[in-house]
Write a structure and sequence with these properties.
heterodimer, A: about 75% helix, B: globular
Chain lengths: ~280, ~325
């Protein structure tokens, strides 16, 4: 069976993919869909969703279009989710690969280091990092990456540890390939599928973390984000439920979609594990 | 003896971790742009250089960094976490005032999520493929993807603003003068929304984990043997499957202490809960470094202690672990 056929057997994964594609298209075309900046007021303040068909999601207290905010917010969420995960994967793979491949003292030191980072409360650490280096898109992305690499390192270390003693790796050693070359061309390709599955689930967590940070007011002040919208809507909860309701639904759907995709990838890449997780 | 050795090793490691957290955060916080002395001086309406220098000397900020760290660590050993820049109160006093509220909230959320999560996971595994199973697993999937702060706001909207069943913020009603049981009941009433909103995410995690773990054990041979002997299904689940399946759930749950603290920052902010999560956030915004460092130290210590207790309990629950060492 081809990879996609196996993936498509999981209906949840297909639904997730469909939702994510919609979110991604909206994110990419936001400036076309809403040429006016989401910070600009475009209508009467506090229009509820049913009041004016031009604003299907209503407007906020300054008459800004909630729909425009949702579209631009998708850009920030996806961007930070993907980039921070990519950075975390690079850190995690490097540390895990070195620890698993060389073992011994190196393994010991690197794993103590990883355990240390796992003990620190991640979200609290992210808050401090972002606040210290002033909230902007780079510091947020890096802070999320710094608190989320340890699981990747542990996973990769385990894979490298078990693959290291396999015959094809021994053969590469015998013909004189260098350590880094063996790691990158022999072992890593064989460890890639669990890394992809973990990474996809990490994107979902990263989006949740980003929205929590911007909810607390630690977002990039120049970019509209879903968490910021909910944070700003807090004081208007009684008067304008839609201001906080829709951004939350957007986060929920995006994160749910990515989790479903992650599970679908897991099923498709490890068919022998199918059913074991129920 | 083995357990004592193990305890000693783990204790040493725990102390090193807390020390590491303190040093790391000390460095990070002092790398931050924005000098607390000038922030304070600016607020006092006196931004002149002499006053700022005086403040810096008062808080020891004019000393070299390694010396500040050394002085701080010496203080920590005697239980002195320094003075808050902002309130002129010992940091230890501030934290001890706030810690019970956070322990109450996170403790309740932990018990709530673990009990409900395991119960739902067992039901889902027991009735695998039924409507109940898909209902439980779908809700778990949804709550696993829902931002905590948003559930909190939606819960306030529905249960406080519209239905008026539960108070939307604070830990107790102000100015009632309740004591004893009346006060406890009042706090419990205020505790419902924060506990449930903080606990729902973890409930979803434990539900999924319990179900997966149950199904894995249910496929093992000794379970088939028990069934083949004619032991009723419910009894097999209770006596044979649950006892084995619950271990990984406990392990995982014990590692969530740090996560709960992170969630507490958000929950306490939304519900104006007077705990250390909010203390930390306020300290951060006000650049009140001693408080921030103190909160980090105390949370790291609590997390490490919880992990240590879990490790010990785990050896107690599953004697095979000690035998294997």
């Amino acid at each position: 069976m081809t990879f996609f056929k196996r993936y498509a057997q999981n209906y949840g994964a297909l639904i997730g993919l469909a939702i994510l594609v919609i979110v991604a298209v909206v994110a990419l075309t936001a400036p076309l869909l809403f040429p006016v900046s989401p910070w600009q007021s475009v209508g009467d303040p506090l229009l509820s969703p049913s009041e004016n068909p031009a604003f299907p999601f209503g407007t906020d207290m300054l008459g800004r279009d909630i729909a425009a905010g949702l579209a631009y917010g998708a850009r920030v969420s996806l961007l930070i989710g993907i980039v921070s995960t990519a950075v975390a994967v690079v850190i995690g793979v490097s540390i895990g690969a070195l620890a698993g491949f060389y073992g011994g003292r190196i393994d010991d030191i690197l794993m103590r280091f990883t355990e240390f980072f796992q003990t620190i409360p991640a979200f609290a650490m992210a808050i401090v990092l972002v606040a210290i280096f002033n909230p902007n898109i780079v510091s947020i992305t890096l802070a999320i990456a710094v608190v989320s690499w340890p699981p990747v390192a542990r996973l990769v270390r385990g894979e490298f540890l078990s693959l290291r003693s396999r015959e094809f790796v021994q053969a590469a050693v015998v013909i004189g390939q260098s350590g880094p070359r063996i790691m990158f061309t022999q072992i890593l390709p064989n460890a890639i599928s669990p890394i992809i599955v973990t990474a996809s689930l990490m994107v979902a967590t990263a989006i949740l973390t980003e929205s929590s940070l911007s909810f607390l007011g630690l977002g990039d002040r120049n970019m509209m984000s879903w968490g910021f919208m909910i944070g700003a809507a807090r004081t208007m909860l009684r008067e304008a439920w839609w201001m906080s309701f829709f951004p939350g639904v957007a986060i929920l759907l995006t994160v749910l979609a990515i989790n479903l995709i992650g599970e679908g990838l897991n099923d498709a890449m490890n068919p022998h594990l199918r059913g074991r997780k129920g | 003896m083995k357990t004592l050795d193990f305890l000693f090793q783990r204790l040493l490691k725990a102390i090193l971790v807390v020390l590491g957290v303190v040093i790391l955060n000390f460095m990070l916080i002092h790398m931050a742009p924005g000098d607390p002395a000038s922030v304070l001086a600016g607020e006092a309406g006196a931004g002149d250089a002499k006053y700022i220098a005086q403040l810096r000397a008062q808080f020891g900020l004019d000393q070299p960094l390694y010396w500040q760290l050394w002085t701080y660590l010496q203080g920590v050993l005697t239980g002195d976490l320094g003075f808050s820049y902002r309130n002129q109160v010992p940091v230890m006093t501030l934290i001890l005032e706030r810690l019970p509220a956070t322990l109450l909230l996170t403790g309740c959320a932990f018990v709530f999520s673990l009990v409900l999560g395991i119960a739902l996971g067992v039901i889902a595994a027991y009735k695998r493929g039924s409507i109940a199973d898909s209902l439980v697993m779908t809700s778990a999937l949804v709550f696993y993807a829902t931002p905590l702060f948003w559930i909190a706001l939606m819960a306030v909207l529905v249960f406080s603003l519209h239905l008026d069943w539960l108070p939307p913020f604070d830990m107790e009603s102000i100015g009632t003068g309740y004591t004893g049981w009346a006060r406890a009941a009042d706090i419990a009433h205020h505790l419902v929304l924060p506990t449930v909103t903080l606990g729902l995410f973890f409930t979803a995690v434990y539900t999924r984990l319990t179900r997966a773990s149950m199904l894995e054990v249910m496929a093992l041979d000794f379970v088939k043997t028990a069934r083949a002997k004619g032991v009723p299904k419910a009894q097999v689940i209770r006596r044979h499957v649950l006892r084995n399946a619950i271990l990984p759930v406990f392990t995982f749950a014990s590692m969530q202490a740090g996560q709960l603290v992170g969630g507490a920052v958000l929950t306490e902010t939304v519900f104006a809960w007077p705990g250390i999560g909010r203390l930390m956030f306020d300290a951060l915004l006000q650049r009140d470094y001693p408080v921030l460092l103190g909160v980090f130290l105390v949370t790291a210590a609590v997390v490490v202690i919880v992990n240590l207790i879990a490790d010990l309990m785990y050896r107690f629950v599953d004697p095979r672990i000690e035998a294997a060492n």
